[in-house]
What we know:
- The structure holds two protein chains of two kinds.
- Chain A is mostly helical.
- Chain A contains eight helices and one strand, in the order αααβααααα.
- Chain A has helices spanning 7-17, 23-43, 48-78, 85-111, 114-120, 126-149, 153-175, 180-205; one strand spanning 81-83.
- The longest helix of chain A is centred in the first third of the chain and has 31 residues, at 48-78.
- Chain A is globular and about 60 Å long.
- Chain B is an alpha+beta fold.
- Chain B has a three-stranded antiparallel β-sheet with strand order 1-3-2.
- In chain B, helix 1 packs antiparallel against helix 6.
- Chain B is elongated.
- Chains A and B meet through helix 1, helix 3 and strand 1 of A and helix 3, strand 1, helix 4, helix 5 and strand 2 of B.
- Strand 1 (81-83) of chain A pairs antiparallel with strand 1 (36-40) of chain B.
Amino acid sequence: MEQQIDLKQLERKVWMSFYEDGLWDIYLGMLLMAMAVGALLSDMGAPETTLIITYGCLVGAAFVFLWLGKRFITIPRLGLVHFGPQAKARKKKASVIFAVSVLVGLIVFVMFLPTVKDSFFKILPIDLVFPAIWVANMLIVFSLAAYFLHYRRLYLIGVMFAVGVPLDILLRELTNRDLSVIAFGLPALVILVMGGVVLSRFLSRYSLGAEVTLDEG
Amino acid sequence: MKVKKKGKENLQHIVEIDRVVHEPARLLILSYLYVVESADFLFLLRQTNLTKGNLSSHLMRLENAGYVSIEKKFVEKIPRTLLSLTKDGRKAFHEYSQRMKKIFSELPG
């Protein structure tokens, strides 16, 4: 045993091993792609009900993918672990951060309700406020989550989520066309490719063996 | 005289080291189990890079010492061997860690 055992580092290594499957990256990429598909349908003039149903289905599919992936890809290859109190505290912090993010989203939603919007945006320019809130919310939330979860790729994912709205505005200004599908689709594709690469590396590193139990050893 | 007494105390600490914990592979297993609540056999196999037979025999030894609890149960219809540190195991690991720190702090050089 040449290396000194650092328990904090060991705990972090164990925790990190469960993010090395790329499934969370793909899940988040799918969420952003759902927004791109929503934008595409909107451009095609799809009714609001179709938009909501499609978006709901895509978000649901992303969640099912994550759940099935953890169950049938990660656990059979990496084994099962129930994390200790430190990891549970970490998860709790991340949950609080995402809850705050949802709250910010709700506040923004209320701000954009017709009655509120008219009085509120007499003071502030709407074209500036919405992108600013979006970028700040995404960057802060993903950075905090990345920090607390020790999940570094979340910084890049946060940037990819953040650029969607400003890129959309920029493309509209430059081309005079609604290119929301590209503005959200391109960053989503970056996340999906990154997740795919991490997943393929994970699959080649951990082969799927038969169920291993103590009796076999 | 004082130095001689200290050296003797230090030797006593070394003699009192828990040999079940002190063995490198078992120390590694205990370290992993110390930082989680429980884990299955495959997880420990992946993390420690020990062979199946090696891991299995060390776990038996730790179970016999009362340091590790081995529970076989079905998790989502799949048979799993769940391993966790017992209270004694956690205590033994902690005491070992404290003792080793003390020994190294008292060693000359």
